[in-house]
Amino acid sequence: MADDEQLIASLPKDLGLLAPSEMCLYQGFWCPTIYIPHIISFQKHFQAQHQDTIVASVPKCGTTWLKSLVFSIVNRTRYDSSTTPLLSSNPHPLVPFLELEVFSKKDVPDLTTIPSPRLFSTHLPYAALSESIRNSDASVVYICRNPFDAVVSLCHHLDELKSNSEAQKSMEEAFDIYFKGIAGYGPFWDHVLGYWKVSLEKPKKVLFLKYEDLKEDIVGELKRIAEFIGYPFSEEEERQGIIQEIAKLCSFSSLKRLEANSSGTYLEVHPNSVFFRKGNVGEWVDYISPSLKQRLENVMSEKLSGSGLSFKLS
Fold first, then answer.
1. What is the pTM of this model?
2. Which of 295, 60, 287 lies closest to 171, judged by CA?
3. Is 123 a residue of the active site?
């Protein structure tokens, strides 16, 4: 038995929200078993460059949106809203996942041929990133959202991917499992607090964003992102409305109606359309009872206690 197979066989297993797909508890976080070899390869072989930007996130917390924003900021002198690759490609291949795509093949990829600045993404917790990322000047832009909406978005996403023969957990069961931590790349609390703490200790290393803040003030957040990754907007660009142009191009409604995002697949199994459902804030109120809400709020309060991190629920 290969070393990876022996390791995987020894790990705790659960189905979580992903039944029938098995998950393993690896290095303190849950992830689909099939991705463990990819993660190991990434951790062993990825060599970060100082100008790299890594988009990091908990699944279903605004990843697709953030990818399109970062890509547009970095490439705004190469493309405008009529020539950008976002018009013909889903954002995911433009900012590929390190553990899901880049290191998904048996052979280690040669990434030295990719021109700088390189853009990558990950769902891995901060502690699981390769040492070269953590020890370099590579920038990490992290996004999360309140866990109540994250559960709803994840459940709808998984529902789109399951076969007709698979039983779907009730939404209340899903909330319970998620808040206990048995979700992809979770526990959610460990994931967000890992990046949150680094953003406080090393503010030049990790920029911590909330989905709700992007919805409230996209222009202000775009300026923060651009400044952080070394591509600040000039006064002239601001006068020309470049920031608003990027915000409009990457808006949920604009991206959703593109042919590239309504047809085709990502990684052969994810229809591009599943990445663009509603994008609303506060949708969770339609799915859980007041008593469950109170219980889950207590869990959230306990998990985040003393961290300085909080999430608005209204």
1. 0.90
2. 287
3. yes
